[in-house]
Design goal:
Blueprint: H1 5-18, E1 31-36, H2 47-65, E2 69-71, H3 82-91, H4 95-104, H5 109-113, H6 118-135, H7 151-166, E3 170-180, E4 185-186, E5 200-210, E6 213-219, E7 230-233, E8 238-244, E9 247-251, H8 253-261, E10 266-273, H9 274-277, E11 281-284, E12 289-295, E13 307-310, H10 316-327, E14 345-346, H11 354-362, H12 371-386, E15 388-389, H13 401-414, E16 418-424, E17 438-448, H14 453-465, E18 467-469, H15 474-483, E19 487-488, E20 490-491, E21 506-507, H16 520-527, H17 538-546, H18 551-558, H19 562-575, E22 580-584, H20 588-602, E23 611-615, E24 618-620, H21 635-642, H22 644-653, E25 661-663, H23 665-681, H24 695-716, H25 720-744, H26 751-765, H27 770-779, H28 801-824, E26 831-835, H29 838-852, H30 858-866, H31 879-889, H32 893-902, H33 907-911, H34 914-922, E27 926-930, E28 952-955
This protein binds one RNA strand through strand 3, strand 17, helix 15, strand 19 and strand 20.
RNA sequence: GCGGGGGUCGCCUAGCCUGGUCAACGGCGUAAGGCUCAGAACCUUAUCUCUUAGGAGUUCGUGGGUUCAAAUCCCACCUCCCGCACCA
C-alpha cells in the first residue's frame, strides 16, 4: 500500500495553520522560549541548513507536549555585504551568478530581472526559505517575523548601540585592514578572488640617512640594525623622492602608493635612478656609522620600500649577495673586499657567522639558489627562539632576540628613526570586484570592546552557570572569550542600521544580531500595526526591556498607546529570557559568544540566556557539501522527493549533536519505509485492550514504561539520535518478541494492547516526525492533535519486575537452545529443561545481596554461605558460587536491582510457557523437571549444572 | 604558533562522562537462504579466531599504570581532523 506524504503533509499543515496551533501568547502556564540563529537570505536553504532548525523545532515541540507554553519565532537577517555584492554582480551581468540563479536556485526569470536591487534578492530568498520552513513542519509563530532592515528593528539596534556606548563598550581605534581601493571597504577571505586570505605582516621601516634624504628599509628583524654592513638598492629601478610626513624619502613608486593608504602624507618631489645611488654611503641610525650603498638586482621594488638593509652575518641572502659581489667585477671608486659580516647574535649550534654556516651546510653557491629561502627560515627561527644579542649591541647585550626585537623597534620608533608599514603576505590579492587589494590603516573605526577584562570575567562566570549542550563545548566558549579582542562593529557599506551617532557607518551584521531575540516579544505588535516606528525613542525600549521610565511619559513621547505599551512590556517580561538558543557549531567563536556578551552587557541577570545548544554540520554521502561538488540539495526539492518527516529523521538519526550528520539517500529511503509501515500499522489496531493481561502483555507494558523514560531522558539531553533509536528501533525487537509469544499461544485478543503502545509511540514520534505522528494519531482513532498531546510519562505501577525477569529468562533459554543446536548441528528430537534446586535459589539470593553490597570475593561468599544451614549445600558444588557471581556481574546494574527487588521468579511456571515457543521453532515440545525432582528423566546427568536464571538443557 | 575534537571488530559509526549490560548498538559491504520467470526492493541468518553442548581465546591508535574487573579512569607517546576575526 502506498502512503501519499504530500497529501498527508498538506492536510496537517493546513489544520495547524487554521487552528493557529503554534501562535503563542502569554498565559499562566510556564513558558519556554526557543530560538535559532535566523537565516541570511542570499540563497535557498539546503539540507544542511535544515539541521539546526529541525533540532530547535523538535525541542519546541517536545517542550510543548511537556505542558510548556512554547514560543518558537523566526526572523530574517538582511544585514551584510554579500547580498550587496550579488546585486552588483547582477548589474554587471555576471554570467556565473545569473546561471546559478537560473539552474541551481531555479529563480523565475522575472524575479532575476529585479535582482540588481539587493533588497529584491533578500526578499526573494526570504520567502523561499520561509516556504521551506513551513513545509518542513516547523512549529513557528509567524506573526512575529521580521527582517533586520525593518524601520522598527533599526530603532531597536540604535537603542542597543547607544546602550553599549553608554556602558563604555564601544571604542574607536585605528587598525590596519585588507582593503579594496575600489569598493572602499575592508576585504576578508570571502571577498577575494579565489578566497585568498588577505593577510599581512608588520614590517619595521628603518630610516637610514643619505644626504638630505631618508633611505627607508623595511625589515622583520629590527634588532639586526647592529649588524648592518651596507644597503642594497636595485640599480635598474627608478626611485621616487617623496615628502613623507615632512621627511624626504627615497622609495620605490609602489611603496609610495602603499604609504598613502597607511595614512602618510606623500608628495612626490622627483625621481632618482637606483644606479645613481650605488657607491654612495648612508648613515646607520643608532650606530651613527657610514655604510656603502651597493647594487642588488634581487631587490624588488614592489616589496617593502624597494630599499633593503644588509646583515650578512645573520641573513643568508645578504651574505651570499655580498660574496657574489666580491667575486664579480669591481665597482668603481669602492673597495668592498674588506666588507665583513658583523655578528651580533650568539646562538647555540652556530659559529660567528650563522648565515655562512647554513649556506655551507646546505651547499648553496649563489644568490639565485632557491635553498636560500629555506636557509633564511632556519636562521630566523633558531635565532628568534634561541639567540642572544652580543656585546656589540650595547644595552641589548644578553637579551634574547624575541625580546630585543620588540625593544629595538619601540625605541627607534620613539626616537623617530623607524616607522611601521604593512605588507600583504602574498600579492597580488584581488577583490571579487577585480581590484588589487592593499593594506589600509583604517582611521577611527568603531569597535566593540570585547577585550574588556571586566566584561570577559562576567561572561566567564555566566558560562559556568549556563546550560550548554553538548557539555564538551563549554570549554570552547571559555577559550573564545579569552581569545576575543576588539571587534569592528561598523562598516561603510552594506544593508543594516546606521550607527546612531555617526551615520557614515553601518552597524555590522554580527553586531546587530546579538540581542534580537528580545525583539520577537514585541515584533508581533509592530506587525499588527499596534506600535509603529515613527516616533519611537530609546525610552520605549528602556521601558519595555529594562523596566526603566515612566509609562505615561514614554507613551506620549513615542506615540504608543498606553495599553499597547503595557502589553509589549508584559509580553517581554513573560517570554524573556531565552530558554534555549540553537545554532551550528561554526557560530561558537563568533555569534553565540557575542550573544552572551551582549546580553550580559545590556540586560539584568534575570534576562540572561539559559541554555545554548550547539550542533554539527551535515555531510552529503559522507562528503562536505559544496557548490563545486554539485552535491547541494535544496531543502524544498528534497521535501518533494522524500517528504519532510523522512528528511527530519534522516538528519537527526545519523549523528549525535556535535557530530557531522551524514545525509544519504539510502538512509532516507529506509526511514521513509519505516514511517510508512508505522502509519499503515496504526490503522490496524483499535481499542479496547483485553481485560485480563497475559504475562507477555505485562512485560510489553513494562518495557514501554522503560522506553518512555529512556526516551524522555534522551530528549531532555538533546540526544535525539538516541531518543529516536528507542522509539523507532529498540522497541521494535520487543514488539516482535511479544508478537512471537502471542502467535505461539494463538492469541487474537491483543489488538488493544498494540493500540495503547502505538499511541504512545505516535506521541513520542510527534516532535521528530510531526506529520507521520498526526496521521498515526488519527488512524488510531485518538482525538485532538498528536502535536498537542501530552508527552507520555512512565507509569511505575505498570512495571512488572517479575514479568521482565520471566520474559528475559524465556528469551535467554531459547537463545541457549538455539546455540546448542547450532554448535552441535543436531536436529532436536527431544528437549529437556531442568530448573535449579531450591537451595540454589536461596544461595542465589544471598550471593546477589552480597554482590550488590560490593562483596565479590568468592572465598568470603562461600564461607558465609556454608555457615548458614539453608545454603550449606554449597559445599557440594563450590564452583556454583563462582559461576553465579559471574552471572550476576555480567548483568546490567538495573537488572541486578530489579532481580533484587522482585525476588526469585518461579521458573517452573515460566517454563510452562516455553513449550509453545519451542514447538513453533522446532516442532517438538519440551519436558521440564526440577533438579531436585527424584523421578526426573536425566540420562546425561545434566540437571546438576542448573543455576537460577540458567536452567540446564538436554537436547537429543 | 594558539585553541578544540578524534583514532573502536572490512568501511562508517555507538559506547567512554557515571569501570562490570562489551566480542562490543546500528548502518554499509560481504555470504547463505527465502521471495521472484529474472532482477530491484524486501525478509531471515551469518560475518575476530577456535569449538559436535549453551563455551573458550585474542581484540577497542601505541606503551605503561590504577582496579577483583578497563574500550571506559590516570600518565606518556604516535597520529588524523577542524577553527583562528572585521565574514555571514
Amino acid at each position: 500500500m502506498h502512503v501519499d506524504w504530500t497529501a498527508i503533509e498538506e492536510k496537517w499543515r493546513k489544520r495547524w495553520q487554521e487552528e493557529r496551533q503554534f501562535e503563542s501568547d502569554p498565559d499562566p502556564r510556564k513558558k519556554f522560549f526557543v530560538t535559532v540563529a535566523y537565516p541570511y537570505p542570499n540563497s535557498p536553504q539546503h539540507i544542511g541548513h535544515g539541521r539546526t532548525y529541525t533540532l530547535a523545532d523538535v525541542h519546541a515541540r517536545f517542550m510543548r507536549m511537556q505542558g510548556y507554553n512554547v514560543l518558537f519565532p523566526m526572523g530574517f537577517h538582511y544585514t551584510g555585504t554579500p547580498i550587496l555584492g550579488m546585486a552588483r554582480r547582477v548589474q554587471e551581468n555576471d554570467r556565473e551568478l545569473l546561471e546559478n540563479f537560473r539552474t541551481l536556485y531555479k529563480v523565475p526569470e522575472d524575479k532575476i530581472a529585479g535582482f540588481s536591487e539587493p533588497v529584491k534578492i533578500a526578499d526573494y530568498f526570504h520567502e523561499e526559505i520561509k516556504a521551506g520552513m513551513i513545509e518542513m513542519g516547523y512549529s513557528i509563530d509567524w506573526r512575529r517575523e521580521f527582517t533586520t532592515i525593518d524601520p522598527f528593528y533599526n530603532r531597536f539596534i540604535e537603542w542597543q548601540f547607544r546602550k553599549l556606548k553608554e556602558h563604555g563598550l564601544v571604542v574607536q581605534g585605528t587598525h590596519p585592514v585588507g582593503w579594496c581601493p575600489r569598493d572602499h571597504n575592508p576585504v576578508s577571505q570571502h571577498d577575494t578572488l579565489g578566497d585568498v586570505e588577505p593577510s599581512f605582516t608588520e614590517y619595521t621601516v628603518i630610516k637610514f640617512k643619505y644626504d638630505r634624504f631618508i633611505l627607508p628599509t623595511a625589515t622583520l628583524r629590527p634588532e639586526t640594525i647592529f649588524g648592518v654592513t651596507n644597503i642594497w638598492i636595485n640599480p635598474d629601478v627608478t626611485y621616487e623622492t617623496c615628502m613623507v610626513d615632512g621627511e624626504e624619502w627615497i622609495i620605490s613608486p609602489e611603496c609610495a602608493q602603499k604609504l598613502a593608504y597607511l595614512n602618510k602624507k606623500v608628495a612626490r618631489t622627483g625621481t632618482v635612478v637606483g644606479s645613481d645611488l650605488v657607491g654612495k654611503t648612508a648613515t646607520v641610525p643608532e650606530r651613527n656609522v657610514e655604510v656603502p650603498i651597493l647594487p642588488a638586482p634581487f631587490v624588488r621594488s614592489d616589496n617593502g620600500t624597494g630599499v633593503v638593509m644588509s646583515v650578512p652575518a645573520h641573513a643568508p641572502f645578504d651574505y651570499q649577495a655580498l660574496e657574489d659581489l666580491k667575486k664579480g667585477k669591481p665597482i668603481p671608486g669602492l673597495d668592498i673586499s674588506t666588507l665583513a659580516p658583523i655578528s651580533i647574535i650568539e646562538t647555540d649550534g652556530y659559529g660567528e657567522v650563522p648565515a655562512r654556516d647554513v649556506i655551507e651546510k646546505m651547499g648553496i653557491k649563489s644568490q639565485t639558489d632557491p635553498g636560500l629561502e629555506e636557509a633564511t627560515k632556519e636562521i630566523y627561527s633558531k635565532e628568534f627562539y634561541g639567540g642572544r644579542l652580543r656585546q656589540n649591541t650595547g644595552r641589548f647585550h644578553q637579551k634574547t632576540v624575541a625580546v630585543a626585537k620588540e625593544e629595538v623597534k619601540r625605541q627607534m620608533i620613539e626616537g623617530g628613526s623607524a616607522d611601521i608599514i604593512y605588507e600583504l603576505n602574498e600579492h597580488p590579492v584581488r577583490c571579487r570586484c577585480g581590484a588589487e587589494c592593499v593594506v589600509k590603516l583604517l582611521d577611527n573605526q568603531w569597535f566593540l570592546n570585547y577585550s574588556s577584562p571586566e566584561w570577559k570575567e562576567k561572561v566567564h562566570s555566566w558560562i559556568r552557570e549556563m546550560k550548554i549542550l553538548p557539555e564538551e563545548i563549554r570549554n570552547e566558549f571559555d577559550n573564545v572569550v579569552d581569545w576575543l579582542k576588539e571587534r569592528a562593529c561598523a562598516r561603510q557599506h552594506g544593508l543594516g542600521t546606521k550607527l546612531p551617532w555617526d551615520p557614515n557607518w553601518i552597524i555590522e551584521s554580527l553586531s546587530d544580531s546579538v540581542i534580537y531575540m528580545a525583539y520577537y516579544t514585541i515584533s508581533k505588535y509592530v506587525n499588527s500595526g499596534t506600535i509603529s516606528p515613527g516616533r519611537i525613542t530609546d525610552s520605549f525600549f528602556d521601558l519595555v526591556f529594562l523596566d526603566i521610565g515612566d509609562p505615561k511619559k514614554v507613551s506620549s513621547d513615542s506615540g504608543v498607546p498606553p495599553q499597547a505599551l503595557e502589553d509589549a512590556r508584559k509580553e517581554f517580561q513573560y517570554w524573556y529570557p531565552v530558554n534555549a538558543r540553537h545554532s551550528g557549531r561554526d557560530l561558537v567563536p563568533n555569534h553565540l559568544t557575542f550573544f552572551i556578551f551582549n546580553h550580559l552587557a545590556i540586560f539584568p541577570k534575570k534576562y540572561w540566556p539559559e541554555e545554548i545548544v550547539v550542533n554539527g554540520s551535515v555531510l552529503m554521502d559522507g562528503k562536505k557539501m559544496s557548490k563545486s561538488m554539485g552535491n547541494i540539495i535544496p531543502l524544498r526539492s528534497a521535501i518533494r522527493t522524500h517528504g519532510a518527516d523522512s528528511i527530519r529523521l534522516a538528519i537527526l538519526i545519523s549523528a549525535e549533536l556535535l557530530q557531522d550528520a551524514d545525509f544519504n539517500q539510502e538512509a532516507v529511503r529506509g526511514i521513509k519505509g519505516k514511517l510508512e509501515s508505522l502509519v499503515l500499522e496504526s490503522s490496524k489496531y483499535k481499542e479496547p485492550r483485553p481485560s485480563a493481561l497475559e504475562q507477555e502483555d505485562r512485560w510489553i507494558y513494562s518495557r514501554l514504561q522503560q522506553v518512555i523514560s529512556e526516551t524522555t531522558l534522551a530528549v531532555q539531553k538533546m540526544r535525539l539520535r538516541e531518543a529516536l533509536h528507542h522509539v523507532l528501533y529498540e522497541f521494535e525487537a520487543d514488539l516482535e518478541w511479544h508478537a512471537k509469544r502471542a502467535a505461539a499461544k494463538k492469541r487474537s485478543d491483543h489488538a488493544g494492547i498494540m493500540h495503547d503502545i502505538l499511541t504512545a509511540r505516535a506521541a513520542m514520534l510527534s516532535p521528530f516526525a510531526p506529520y507521520a505522528a498526526e496521521e498515526m494519531w488519527h488512524n488510531l482513532g485518538n482525538t485532538g492533535l498528536a502535536s498537542r498531546a501530552s508527552w507520555p510519562s512512565p507509569d511505575d505501577s505498570k512495571v512488572d519486575l517479575l514479568a521482565l525477569q520471566s520474559e528475559s529468562l524465556l528469551r535467554r533459554t531459547l537463545d541457549d537452545i538455539r546455540n546448542i543446536v547450532k554448535v552441535t548441528k543436531i536436529t532436536p528430537k527431544k528437549i529437556t529443561i531442568y530448573t535449579a534446586a531450591p537451595w540454589k535459589g536461596a544461595a542465589y539470593q544471598r550471593i546477589l545481596a552480597k554482590v550488590t553490597a560490593g562483596e565479590v570475593n568468592i572465598g568470603n561468599i562461600i564461607k558465609s554461605l556454608i555457615s548458614d544451614p539453608e545454603t550449606a549445600d554449597i559445599k557440594k558444588d563450590p564452583d556454583f558460587v563462582k559461576k553465579t557471581v559471574n552471572d550476576i556481574l555480567s548483568d546490567p546494574q538495573g537488572d541486578r536491582d530489579s532481580k533484587n527487588r522482585a525476588g526469585l521468579v518461579d521458573e517452573a511456571r515460566v517454563f510452562s510457557e516455553i513449550s509453545t515457543l519451542v514447538e513453533a521453532d522446532y516442532g517438538i515440545g519440551v519436558q521440564v523437571f526440577s533438579e531436585s525432582d527424584q523421578a526426573k528423566y536425566d540420562p546425561k546427568n545434566k540437571a546438576r549444572t542448573a543455576r537460577p536464571y540458567k536452567p540446564a538443557i538436554l537436547i537429543e
